[in-house]
Specification:
Layout (H helix, E strand, L loop, with lengths): L2 H14 L6 H12 L10 H19 L1 H12 L4 H32 L5 H23 L16 H11 L9 H11 L4 H28 L7 H29 L6 H20 L1
Helix pairs in contact: 1-2, 1-10, 2-6, 3-9, 3-10, 4-5, 5-7, 5-9, 6-8, 6-11, 7-8, 8-9, 9-10
Length: 282
């Protein structure tokens, strides 16, 4: 893989990782459609994607540094209303993370074969559009929709667990992790902005955990000389574009709290359906 190709995939991942349109799905589909010469079944390809996600995790930590600082101080500081609130948010993050950790450990090897199949990823990307669209419609049925929680202080452990279970659908390439968790947050009573906020918070431990597991594998692939350096460059590019994506989305959800996921659903239908049709006819 050339540096230019790695940066292209990194920018694509950085832009789409936080948008509810599945960065993994795009990373699998586009090389297959554009004929970029990427061996998606190569043992270093998935670890390369994980390094890109580490760049995204760094962007998340930098953007939400106040949240993580508050959580850190809450864990070591003396009890106070602010410390208690931070500890509670941290507990919700843990609860929401556990389902992905457990199910990922149990089914990781069975799902890996799907990662390099563009047609499958295109199908799930199309399905992701329905997840976003139906999630918005289900949210309308919430009796207290107009009084949605604007922050995470009122999120219950049941709501956090439900969001964590929704997150597990992103094991399938083409299903957006952020999209699934945002839908879970909406159905748990959060506003779009609060759902996005919590989605971005729980992304950090998931992404870092994946990096701990996969980066050592990348470093041991002697058959791909220079891949580690290319991955670092890609990670930096992904981090910079991810930071810009976070800033845009937080502003977008602040201004839009009605059918805010619909444009992304339309995109997933167009991109996933178009890609599937192209791959079937090619």
């Amino acid at each position: 893989m050339s540096v230019l190709l790695a940066v292209f995939i990194a920018v694509l991942q950085g832009v789409t990782e936080l948008f509810p349109v599945s960065s993994l799905g795009h990373a699998v589909i586009l090389p297959g459609i554009l004929g970029l010469g990427v061996d998606q079944r190569a043992p270093e390809f998935l670890p390369f994607l994980v390094v890109l996600h580490l760049g995204t995790a760094t962007a998340l930590l930098l953007y939400f540094w106040r949240d993580w600082l508050g959580i850190a101080l809450g864990l070591v500081g003396r009890p106070s209303p602010e410390r208690d609130a931070s500890r509670r948010v941290f507990l919700m993050v843990i609860i929401a993370t556990l389902p992905a950790v457990v199910l990922g450990f149990l089914f990781e090897h069975k799902l890996k074969d799907l990662f390099g199949v563009p047609l499958i990823a295109a199908g799930f990307l199309f399905l992701n559009g329905f997840l976003l669209f139906v999630g918005e419609r289900l949210r309308r049925r919430q009796a207290a929709r107009e009084n949605g929680l604007n922050d995470l202080s009122g999120l219950t452990w049941k709501g956090a667990l439900a969001i964590g279970l929704w997150q597990c659908t992103a094991f399938f390439p083409g299903i957006s992790r952020s999209g699934a968790t945002m839908v879970g947050g909406l159905l748990s009573g959060l506003t779009h902005r609060a759902s996005a906020h919590f989605s971005f918070l729980i992304a950090t431990p998931i992404i870092l955990g994946a990096g701990v597991l996969e980066v050592p594998k990348l470093l041991h692939h002697a058959a791909a000389p220079g891949m580690a350096g290319i991955s670092v460059i890609g990670g930096i590019a992904a981090g910079l574009t991810a930071y810009a994506s976070i800033a845009f989305l937080m502003h977008y959800f602040r201004k839009h709290d009605f059918d805010a996921l619909d444009p992304f659903a339309y995109y997933c239908w167009a991109a996933g359906g178009g890609a599937a049709l192209f791959l079937l006819l090619a």
